[in-house]
Structure formats: C-alpha cells, structure tokens
C-alpha cells in the first residue's frame, strides 16, 4: 500500500543534478510603496520557476517561504534553484508531497496553501497522483474541522473527488501485480510463470489487493456523525463491492443498528 505514496515522495527526497534555468520576478517591498527594482529583482528557478509559481511563491510571507524551504528542501537543492526536469514532469505529485510533509499541526495551514495551488495541475495528472492528492487534502483539512469553517467542506469535497476516481484507481493498483506476472511470462514462458504464481499465491493476492481508501472511510465517518446512516450504509457497500480494504463489515453492522434506532 505504501509503494504509491513512496512513488510520490521519491522525487522529493532523491538527489538530482540540476542545470541552471532562471526566471526573473519582482519582489514585493517590505515598505509601503509597491515593488522594489534593480538589485531587488530575484532570479527564481527550480521547481517554483519551472511550474510558473513565482507569483504564488512571492505572495507567501518571508516566514512562510522559510518554513517551506526548511521542511521541504533543507539543503536548498531544487525548490528555487536549477532545473529539476524529473520533478517538474509530475507537478501534482511534487506539490502533494510538499503538502504531505507540511501536514503537521504547526504548519498545516501552510500545507493547505500548497495543496490549493496544486489544484492547478489536477487535470493533467495521472490517476494515482490525483488519488493521493485528494487523500492528502482530506488529511490536511479534516483535523481542523472545528477551528476552520471551510476545512470540513474541503475535506468532504476531496472525499467525493477521490471516491469518483475509485474505480479507475482500483484498476491502476491491480495492474501492478498483473504487470509483474505478464513480464514473467514474456521473459520465462507460461510454464515457469504458472509455476511461480502457484508458489507465490499469497504474495500475488496481496499485490492484487486494494489498499485502505481514505475518501470512502472519512466520508463514512462524517456521514455517521451527521446522523445520515442510510447514506453511510450505501457508501460502505460501494467500497466493499469495489474491493477497498477497511473495516466495512463492522462499520456496516454499527450503522445498521443506529439506522434501526
């Protein structure tokens, strides 16, 4: 289950060589009167420059930029320097990873800012990058539901978006195991592949099994707390039918008792 999240976070933590590619941006003045020019023009490259997020980056406060650097790029290697081509090729995954790293009580508000700008790249991302993006949005918003009036609504929205993707995400997760077996057949032939599959049946079943689905689980919890038991029951039944891991039978049993009163 962790391999896909590791796939997202790998690009953030792996060392890479960078080639210089710089873009200029006006820096907001700390004094009244607009923008400073001349020596105050900064050259911003890296992931921020490559994704055309310079204006967003400069709209953050000095303290916010410092936090993002210290948490996400402590060695100052890629965020605003160089040309991280591999990172920039999957912008949603990169920004999701940053939002995930920042998702702790002290920096959760900043995590949500990163995830908000990441929404620009959802439409062009692959299915699993979108799946994990919505998961991190849920996890960065739901804990603040009692402090921030918009956090619960955002968490529900992300649950619904992740659930809408669920059938396609399930196909992607299951394709990994099938792909491994197909490669084995092409390389060593059907007889060897069948023999290997018989010997490793339990491992293959785990490969095909779907992980825990945060969107289904969190929305079921929310609906239950809202007293919408019938909606929660239907949601859990859908998750079970699609094969997502979770304590669905136990949750359904509790919901049905509450629904009957």
Q: What structural category characterises the helix and strand content?
A: mainly alpha
> Main β-sheet: number of strands, strand sense, barrel status?
2 strands, antiparallel
What is the residue-mean pLDDT, rounded to a whole number? 81
User: Total number of helical segments?
Assistant: 14
Percent of sequence in beta strands = under 5%
* Number of self-contained structural domains: 2
Secondary structure: number of strands: 4
Low-pLDDT stretches are 1-41
What Rg, in angstroms, do the CA atoms define? Answer: 22 Å
* Spatial sequence of strands, sheet with the most strands: 1-4
Order of helices and strands: HEEEEHHHHHHHHHHHHH
Helix content: 55-70%
Shape: flat
Terminus-to-terminus distance: 37 Å
Summary of the model, kept short:
The chain is mainly alpha-helical and 261 residues long. Helices cover 66% and strands 3% of the residues. The protein has two domains: 139 residues, no CATH class; 66 residues, no CATH class.
Task: Describe the secondary-structure layout.
Elements: H1 2-13, E1 24-25, E2 27-28, E3 35-36, E4 42-43, H2 46-50, H3 54-59, H4 62-72, H5 85-88, H6 91-102, H7 108-118, H8 127-141, H9 149-188, H10 190-199, H11 201-208, H12 214-225, H13 229-242, H14 248-260
Antiparallel strand pairs: 1-4, 2-3
Helix pairs in contact: 1-6, 6-7, 6-8, 7-8, 8-9, 9-10, 9-12, 12-13, 13-14
